[in-house]
Amino acid sequence: MSAVIQMSDEIVSVNPATGEEVGRVSITSPDEVCEAVQRGRDAFSKWKLTSFDDRKRLVMRARDVVLAAMDDIAHLISAESGKPFGEAIAMEVAPVLDLMQWVAKNAEKMLGPKRVGIGLYSLLGRSSKIVYHPLGVVGIIPAWNYPFSIPLGETVMALMAGNTVVIKPSELTPFVGLKIGEIFEKAGFPRDVVKIVTGRGETGAALVDAAPDKIMFTGSVATGKRILAAAAPNMTSVVLELGGKDPMIVFEDANLELAASAAVWGAFCNAGQSCSSVERLYAQESIAKELTRKIVEKTRELKQGAGDDEDVSIGAMSSARQLKIVEDHVNDFRDRGAIIEIGGRRNENLDGLFYEPTVISGATNDMRAMQEETFGPTLPIATFKTEEEAIALANDSEFGLTASVWTRNYEKGKRVAEQIQAGSVCVNEVLYTHGIGQTPWGGFKNSGRGRTHGREGLMELVQPQHIHVNRIALLPNAWWMPYSSNAVKTFRGFASKFASGSLIKTSALLPQLWKRITELRKK
Ligand code: NDP
Q1: Is 14 helix (H, G, I), strand (E, B) or coil?
Q2: What's the pLDDT tens digit per position in 28-49?
Q3: β-strand 164-167 against 137-141: which pairing, if any?
Q4: Catalytic residue IDs
Q5: Best probe residue, ligand 1, of 220, 238, 239, 451 (max atoms within 8 Å of C-beta)
Q6: Helices (H), 213-313
Q7: What gap in Å lies between CA 77 and CA 89, rounded to an integer?
Q8: Rounded distance from Cα 447 to ligand 1 centre (Å)
Q9: What structural domains does the chain harbor?
Q10: Using one digit for the tens of pLDDT, what is the confidence trace for 397-441?
């Protein structure tokens, strides 16, 4: 069973936990996608002129709309993605509400004009400031795994920066995408400031071809590369939020009870379909058995089922394709001699796309499933002896999205964290930092390019303009034409004295500088 039935001109969205139809949406044609971008561009000419206060008021109204409809939204997310209803609130609605209030209240502070120190140039009567201009139309192409929080959060950041937005939700979650459009409409945003186009990969490709001013893409490395290539002819800049194979390192001095609970949540929430899921656990040899036993015990307690039951912890996989990858990876572990401690099969008691939460011991980095992203409810455990070995094993990956280090020695934790090649590394925490909207989110290596969230994420959505003013515009600059041997002598002085940044050294240049300026004034 697939969560989506492929038809020529419409998408049928299906609940992966029950097989029931959620609804049908038509596919936006490439011409209509171009039109949506054009309308967004027309709307931009007015939207970019709105004040931060007006934007904030509207975003906070959109936030109220989300809050008032929280349960309905969570049920819809759950129906289209298969994740438990409660998890949709905890991991999508709550974090995005927090991001919305933070960016609404702080965008002006971050994007208002900034004076920049220009060192010794300021002694020449000059000053510089940076003004941040919005880009235009931002095209957002999210994945299906966090179909609400990721595109909504990116949209709000783009809007606060003064851009307009066109979103192409995943074909697996089109109604969640349409819901986002509805939220902005209800909040009273001007027409065409946020537009939703629906369809499959081709519709996403049409959005890239329509040359928006920025693409915010979340998805696989393969599609990310395709989008980069397609964006190149228009030189559209692209932020890529891609996959992960995130390691969790547990040292022998860690709180094992806590680490085991964290590993279970980190590996199995959203049925393991989080880009920052724990996909590899490295346990120090001396505690590996005990930690594995605790993890297995905790896994055994988890109830799996349809997303609407409030005591369900593990929902369905989002698609048959994803479930097949999980089966292949678990088979690979089995074939290579790793031990399936619990799970390791589809949940035959349930009709939908359910795979049992699976704990695997005896994994090693040369196994295929320790290198490729699984994106499912599997937790492979490998062991290490020393700190250096743990770091090397964690870094032995093409990915670098997040990682976690577990130890009671915080100095060691921070020391190890800084040596791990990943965009976010937690000490004694796991997975949840996408929920901290104030901090930058993005990957090292093949996990991505650019950042969302935080000040760094806002900076992706603007172009900085440098305004430079000379308040004492009376004399020609010493570096202007015509050149002469006197000029060259002065330039040498610039290189050896002024460029040192030292006022004392530069003052020795003043007689020569004056000579040169006098020479220029006589010309
Ligand atoms: P895909 O790359 O298959 O798809 C991502 C999005 O791109 C979907 O909306 C898809 O549409 C669209 N798309 C597909 N082909 C094209 C194309 N040629 N041009 C433009 N758009 C296209 O990824 P998945 O949906 O399978 O998502 C899972 C991946 O996302 C995992 O690797 C995961 O780690 C990563 N991810 C990364 C995050 C991060 O923050 N770093 C966060 C969440 C997920 P459609 O679905 O309709 O085909």
Answers
A1: strand
A2: 999 999 999 999 999 999 999 9
A3: parallel
A4: 241, 275
A5: 220
A6: 221-231, 256-268, 285-300
A7: 9
A8: 12
A9: 29-242+455-464 (3.40.605.10), 246-435 (3.40.309.10), 476-522 (no CATH)
A10: 999 999 999 999 999 999 999 999 999 999 999 999 999 999 999
